[in-house]
Write a structure and sequence with these properties.
By secondary structure, the chain is mostly helical. Helix content is about 70%, strand content about 5%. It is built from 18 helices and 5 strands. The strands form 2 sheets. A 3-stranded antiparallel beta sheet has the order 4-1-5. It has a two-stranded antiparallel ribbon with strand order 2-3. It starts with a helix and ends in a 7-residue tail after the last helix.
C-alpha cells in the first residue's frame, strides 16, 4: 500500500487528487470542532456507554457525536435518505421511471436524496437530543433550543454531504466512505493516546498487561479475517466457443466470473446501524413514555438488540446483492457471446446456477458481518474484555483502505504506469 502511494505521488494528476482529498478531509475535521449551543455534553457522554448504537455512531464521526459539534450526525442522515430512496424506487413508479432515464434521472434522484438528508438530519438531531435529555435547562424555551440544535446539526450534515460528493467527484475514492474512515481513524488515535497516558500515569499490573495483549491480538485477528474475506472471491469457470466472424476467429478461450465473498462490503453494516436509529429518534420526542423507556433501557442493552441487528445485516446483504448482481442478465450475455459454464446448460440453468452460488456466498458474507457486529460487544458483556472500538468500525476502516488502494492501482494501470505492483 505504501509503495502504491509513493508511485501515485509521482503522477501529477493523481498527486492533485490526493492533495484535494486530504484538504477536504481536513476541512471536515476542522468543522467538527464547532460546538452546538444548548446541549449538555456531560449528559450525552454518560449515556454513550449504555447504548451500543450511540457508541458506534460516535466512533463513525470521530467522537464528534460525543462532543456534540455541528458534525455530530455525520453523514448518517445521508445514508438513511439513500436507503429510503432506493426502497422507494421499487414502490413508487415515478422514481422507478427516473432511475431508468439515465444520467438525468439519477441527478433528480440525487437531488431528492439531498432534500431528504436535510430533513432527516433535523429530525434525528432533535429526537436524539431530546431522548438523551441533553438540553440545558438554563437556555431559552425548549422549543427554540431544539430548533437551534436541529438547524445547526442539519447544516453540519449538509456540509459533510457536500464534502463527500466533492471527494467522489474530484478526489480519490468514495467520499462518503472516506469521511467515515476519517472518523474511525480519529477515534483510534484518541484511544491510543488515552492508553499511552494511562500507561505512564498509573501503576502497571499483570492483569492490565494481559488485557492489553488480548486486545492487541484480537485486533490483529480481526484485521486478518477482514482482509481475507474482503479479498476472497469465488471464480466460476466460463468456456467460450470458437466462432468465425468474417475472416477472423473469436472465442475458444477459458475465463472466469469473479464473485466476491463479501460483495456488499460495509454497506449492510452501515445500513443496519442507520435504520436502528429510527425508532430511538422517534421515541426521543416522548422520552418519558413507557415504550421509550423500554427501548432505551431494555431492548438497546439486551439480547434482542443483537438479534434484530444481525437479521437486518443479513437482509441488507441480500438486498444489496439483488441490486448489484443480476444472474439472468449475466446468463443472457454469456449465451449471446457463446459462453457456457462447464457442465451447465445455457439459459435458465445457467442463471439458476449463478443465483444459487450468489445466494450461498451472500449468506456467508452476511453471517460474517453479523458476527463482526455482535461478537465483540457480547465478549465485553460476558467476558469483561473491552475492545477500543467495534469490529464493525475495523471492518469499515480496512475495507475503505483496500478499496482506495485498488482505485489508485487501477488509475495507474490506465496510465500504463510501470512498477506499481
Amino acid at each position: 500500500m505504501l509503495q502504491t502511494l509513493r508511485n501515485a505521488w509521482r503522477i501529477e494528476e493523481l498527486r492533485k487528487k490526493i492533495l484535494y482529498t486530504l484538504f477536504m478531509l481536513l476541512l471536515y475535521r476542522l468543522a467538527g470542532v464547532i460546538p452546538v449551543a444548548g446541549i449538555d455534553v456531560g449528559q450525552v457522554a454518560s449515556r454513550l456507554g449504555d447504548l451500543p448504537l450511540l457508541g458506534f455512531m460516535s466512533a463513525m464521526t470521530g467522537n464528534q457525536f460525543a462532543n456534540m459539534t455541528i458534525m455530530a450526525m455525520g453523514i448518517s442522515p445521508y445514508i438513511n435518505a439513500s436507503i429510503i430512496m432506493q426502497l422507494l424506487q421499487v414502490a413508487v413508479p415515478y422514481l422507478e421511471n427516473l432511475s431508468k432515464e439515465g444520467e438525468e434521472g439519477r441527478k433528480k434522484i440525487a437531488q431528492y436524496t439531498r432534500y431528504a438528508t436535510v430533513i432527516l438530519g433535523f429530525v434525528q438531531a432533535v429526537g436524539l437530543v431530546i431522548g438523551l435529555g441533553a438540553i440545558r435547562a438554563n437556555m431559552f424555551s425548549p422549543f427554540i433550543t431544539s430548533c437551534v440544535i436541529g438547524v445547526s446539526m442539519a447544516a453540519g450534515t449538509t456540509l459533510a454531504m457536500w464534502i463527500g460528493e466533492r471527494i467522489t467527484e474530484k478526489g480519490i475514492g468514495n467520499g462518503i466512505s472516506l469521511l467515515i474512515f476519517a472518523g474511525i481513524i480519529a477515534s483510534l488515535f484518541t484511544w491510543v493516546a488515552s492508553g499511552v497516558n494511562t500507561l505512564f500515569t498509573t501503576s502497571v499490573t499483570v492483569g492490565g498487561i494481559i488485557t492489553a495483549v488480548c486486545v492487541i491480538l484480537g485486533i490483529l485477528v480481526m484485521v486478518t479475517a477482514v482482509t481475507f474475506v474482503d479479498m476472497g472471491e469465488r471464480r466460476v469457470s466460463v468456456q467460450y466457443a470458437k466462432r468465425v466472424v468474417g475472416r477472423k476467429m473469436y472465442g475458444g478461450q477459458s475465463t472466469h466470473i469473479p464473485m466476491k465473498v463479501n460483495a456488499s462490503g460495509v454497506l449492510p453494516l452501515i445500513f443496519a446501524y442507520s435504520i436502528m436509529q429510527f425508532p430511538g429518534t422517534i421515541m426521543g420526542f416522548w422520552p418519558n413514555s413507557g415504550i421509550s423507556t423500554w427501548w432505551n433501557e431494555s431492548f438497546m442493552t439486551g439480547m434482542w438488540y443483537f438479534v434484530v441487528l444481525a437479521l437486518m445485516i443479513l437482509f441488507f446483504a441480500y438486498f444489496y446483492n439483488s441490486i448489484t448482481f443480476n444472474p439472468i442478465e449475466v446468463a443472457k450475455n454469456m449465451q449471446q457471446n457463446g459462453g457456457t459454464i462447464p457442465g451447465i446448460r445455457q439459459g435458465k440453468p445457467t442463471s439458476d446456477y449463478l443465483a444459487r452460488i450468489s445466494s450461498r456466498i451472500t449468506l456467508f458474507g452476511g453471517i460474517f458481518l453479523a458476527l463482526l457486529a455482535t461478537i465483540p460487544t457480547l465478549a465485553s458483556m460476558w467476558g469483561g474484555i473491552n475492545l477500543p472500538f467495534a469490529a464493525s468500525s475495523l471492518l469499515i476502516a480496512v475495507s475503505v483502505s483496500l478499496e482506495t488502494t485498488r482505485q489508485l492501482e487501477s488509475q495507474m494501470l490506465m496510465r500504463h504506469y510501470k512498477g506499481f505492483l
